[in-house]
Design a protein that fits this description.
12 helices; globular; 308 residues; mainly alpha
Length: 308
C-alpha cells in the first residue's frame, strides 16, 4: 500500500517521472511481502509499529544530520499528525489482511479506493458525480465482490480488511483535498512516522495491559528486527520516490502507474510464497483497474471543463 501525496510541481521530466513512479510501485509490494512473512511470528500490530517507528527514526536522523530542525514541526502539524494516524490505521488493517490472504489479492481489493474517494467527495464535499462515474464505481465494486467471494468463504470477515484500508486511505486523500500539503517531504515523513509510532505504541501498551491476543508485544529476534528496519526503509524510500515523481510529472501521466503494485505483488508473491491469482480473481482485478482508470479520466475531463 503506497503512501502518496501531490506536492508542488518542479521541473517537468516525464521520462524520469515514469521511472521514479514505477520504481516506487515495485518497491511497495516488497514491504507488504516482508510484512506477510513476519506475520508468521509477530502480530500485525507489532509489525506495523515497527514500520512507522523505523520510518520515524530514519527521518529523525536525517533532520539531525542536515540541521533542518524546522522539519520537526512544519506549517500544519495538527493536520500532518492526523494524516499519520490515518496511514497507521490503514497500514495496520492491510498488514493484518496479508497475514491471511495473498498480497496480490489484498492490494487488488484495496484499489477500490478511487471509487470510495469519489463517493466520499460527493457526500462530504458535495462534488458532482455523473452517471458515468457512478457506473464505473459499480463496475469496480463488482470486481471487488468477485475477488472477495472465495476469500470470505475461507477467511471470514478478515477478508474485508483491504476495504477498510481503502476507506481509511480515501479519508487521508480527502484531507489532502481540504488541506493541501504545504510542508516538505522530510516534515511529512517525520510527522507520519512519529504520529504512527505514538498511535500504534499506545495500542501495544493497551494490549500488554489487558492481555488482548494479537495486541501483545513479542520480543523480535535479530533477524526479525532487521526485516522491520527494512520495512521502514522501504516505506521511507517509496514515499520519497512518489513525491519526486509527482514533482516531475503530472497526475494524469502517473496515476495509471499505481496499478504496477498489483504486478509487483503478484511477482513477489509467486517467488516467495508460490501464490498466484486464479482466473476469476484476474477478471475482478481487470474490472477494478478499468473502473479506477475511467474515474481518473472523467475527473480529468471535468477539471478541464471547469478550468475553461
Amino acid at each position: 500500500m503506497s503512501q502518496s501525496a501531490l506536492p508542488e510541481t518542479a521541473d517537468q521530466n516525464p521520462l524520469v517521472a515514469i521511472l521514479l513512479m514505477s520504481s516506487a510501485m515495485m518497491l511497495v509490494p516488497m514491504m507488504d511481502i516482508i510484512a506477510r512473512y513476519l506475520s508468521a511470528g509477530l502480530p500485525p500490530l507489532e509489525i506495523t509499529f515497527g514500520r512507522f517507528f523505523f520510518q520515524f527514526a530514519i527521518a529523525f536522523a536525517i533532520i539531525l544530520a542536515t540541521g533542518k530542525f524546522g522539519a520537526f514541526r512544519g506549517k500544519q502539524p495538527v493536520v500532518n499528525y492526523l494524516r499519520g494516524v490515518l496511514l497507521a490505521a490503514a497500514s495496520l488493517c492491510f498488514f493484518t489482511a496479508v497475514k491471511y490472504m495473498s498480497v496480490a489479492t489484498a492490494i487488488s481489493i484495496f484499489f477500490v479506493e478511487p471509487m470510495i474517494l469519489t463517493v466520499l467527495a460527493a457526500l462530504l464535499l458535495k462534488e458532482q458525480v455523473g452517471p458515468r462515474r457512478i457506473g464505473a464505481i459499480l463496475v469496480g465494486l463488482l470486481g471487488a465482490i468477485i475477488i472477495l467471494r472465495p476469500n470470505i468463504a475461507e477467511f471470514g470477515l478478515v477478508s474485508l480488511l483491504p476495504i477498510c484500508t481503502a476507506f481509511l486511505f480515501a479519508f487521508y486523500l480527502l484531507i489532502n483535498r481540504l488541506r493541501p500539503i504545504t510542508d516538505g517531504l522530510l516534515t511529512i515523513q517525520f510527522s507520519a512516522g512519529l504520529s504512527g509510532t505514538l498511535f500504534l505504541g499506545c495500542a501495544l501498551a493497551l494490549g500488554a495491559f489487558t492481555g488482548t491476543q494479537g495486541m501483545e508485544f513479542l520480543p523480535p529476534t535479530s533477524g526479525q528486527t532487521g526485516l522491520l528496519m527494512l520495512i521502514g526503509l522501504i516505506s521511507f524510500a517509496a514515499h520519497g520516490l512518489v513525491v519526486a515523481a509527482f514533482q516531475r510529472g503530472n497526475a494524469t501521466l502517473l496515476a495509471p502507474l499505481q496499478y504496477l503494485e498489483i504486478v509487483g505483488a503478484t511477482l513477489f508473491g509467486y517467488l516467495v510464497f508460490t501464490e498466484f491469482p486464479d482466473g476469476p480473481t484476474w477478471f475482478g482485478i481487470a474490472l477494478i483497474v478499468f473502473s479506477g482508470l475511467y474515474i481518473a479520466h472523467r475527473e480529468r475531463v471535468n477539471r478541464k471543463a471547469a478550468s475553461s
